[in-house]
Design goal:
- The chain is globular.
- The longest helix is centred in the N-terminal third of the chain and has 18 residues, at about 40-60.
- By secondary structure, the protein is of the alpha/beta class.
- A nine-stranded mixed β-sheet has the order 2-1-11-10-12-13-14-15-16, with helices on both faces.
- A hairpin with a 6-residue loop joins strand 14 (about 325-330) and strand 15 (about 340).
- Helix content is about 30%, strand content about 25%.
- The chain binds adenosine-5'-diphosphate.
- The site of adenosine-5'-diphosphate (ADP) has 22 residues, from strand 14, strand 21 and strand 22.
Length: about 550
Amino acid sequence: MIESTMQDFPLNVGMMFRHGRALHGESEVVTFEGDHTRRATFTELAARSERLAVALRDLGVAPGDCIGTFMWNTQEHLEAYFAVPLQGAILHTLNIRLFPEQLAYIVNHAGDRVILVGDDLAPALARVAAELDTVEFFVVVGDGDVRVLEEAARDGVEFHRYDDLLAAADPAAFEFPEIDEWAPAAMCYTSGTTGNPKGVVYSHRSTFMHTIGVSTGTGVPYTWNDRVLPIVPMFHAMAWGAPYSAWMAGADLLMPNRYLQAEPLARFIAAERPTTTCAVPTIWSDLLRYSETHDVDYSSLQRIMCGGAAVPRALMQAFQDRFGIRMLQAWGLTETSPVAAVALPPRGVEPGTAEEMDWREKTGRPLPGVELRIVGDDDTILPWDGEAVGEIEARGSWITGSYYGDPTPEKFHDGWLRTGDIATITRDGYVKITDRAKDVIKSGGEWISSVELEGRLLAHPDVVEAAVIAVPDPRWDERPLACVVLRDGATVTPVELCEFLGSYVAKWQLPERWTFISEVPKTSVGKFDKKVLRAQYADGDLAVVEL
Ligand code: ADP
């Protein structure tokens, strides 16, 4: 019998770390501080990561321990992205915007022993500090006043300053332990729209494979000529893999820190000239709106990656027409590491044409390494014909097969992850999401796509934001309610908006209920929060016009 002659070489974060450091030592990580920047080369950052690994070990951290991070996108967060998994511990990125009870739940559920916390975020962590049963150490990044956290913390919990620990760590003491590729490297909890958040644990292998997957030409590859601005938080599904893939490619990393509003972000973009960046659609709508009344310079941007929610065609078109920037749509979940599909048009399609936009408006095509299928209500597997509508199921080397300490068999199906997203898939693998299962509008036995209605509404020049939700209807079970944010001073009426929509969607799908609101509520990761809108409607808090 012939056996493979290949070396048994683990795919792990250590290998990624060594690669970026050895080949791209001069590349830089820039952290925005509002009025100035902090800069470190990959060589410097790698040395600090090693010191952090030693410092954590000196605190008693052992392989398999969970280390929480409560930080914005900063140089130090990237240092932890390497230092923690490098020594066999597990990086647990904590969503700083979670409700306190959810935050306490996930820290205790994961059993975090240490939390690295930005000094400016100490007050947010203080709200739950007394309930964090497993935390023994807080390591504070920055030299700001954190008394509020010290006072709230349980007795006996130790406080250290990050820079002091690094200064005291002996760099010569660092050794790369042998880490099995199947060992856990990082964990992230889903934002838990229903019930408690669920923990997804990425292995070294899955992290490596995801990094390679997104770096292929079918993903969002970076090169050492790129300057990457990850706006998506490092606590939201590992910033979509951008930190690790940029490091592997030697692309500079521009860290926006807490400055995520349009004004400072636009300033950071103009000053540091990123070539590419990634964020949810609401950030791009903000930056677009800001550009209408302020001088901006987005000219360095060649490509924007957008995802986390359906990307409206009008948004992609606006960035193309006004700035010549190509916005690419990607799809994934915390459970899929997260990038599973990217919407690149097929061969032969002319860039900048309406036909190209038709393809880019789709959700994407699976990356090599990810397999997708759609299934119907009775779990039958549906054809890839661009017509059949079903729930997407996924499997592959960076797709989770379970949740940590939370058996949920209903989320899996014969080894496939049920994603909760409803879609069609064309013969050649283009996925088009019509809705999340929980957002679907079931009207008289037919489904109305809220994503489609929202996308069309946004194409109207007076519409700034639009979210369409299902509301109960005595005759049709459910009907759409359009919740619309209008541009300042706009006077367009529901009837006019219906007429506008009528040129694109079937008459029976047109909403007869409308409400104008000042802002669509957002989730902790900046997506439209439709459950809040549903609750507001149920409580009678929305002024609804019926046509
Ligand atoms: P959550 O949104 O629940 O906080 P995730 O960040 O893991 O958690 O989001 C995953 C979900 O985001 C997907 O299941 C899907 O509904 C939505 N999503 C992500 N990208 C896209 C996209 N390009 N188009 C439509 N929906 C998307």
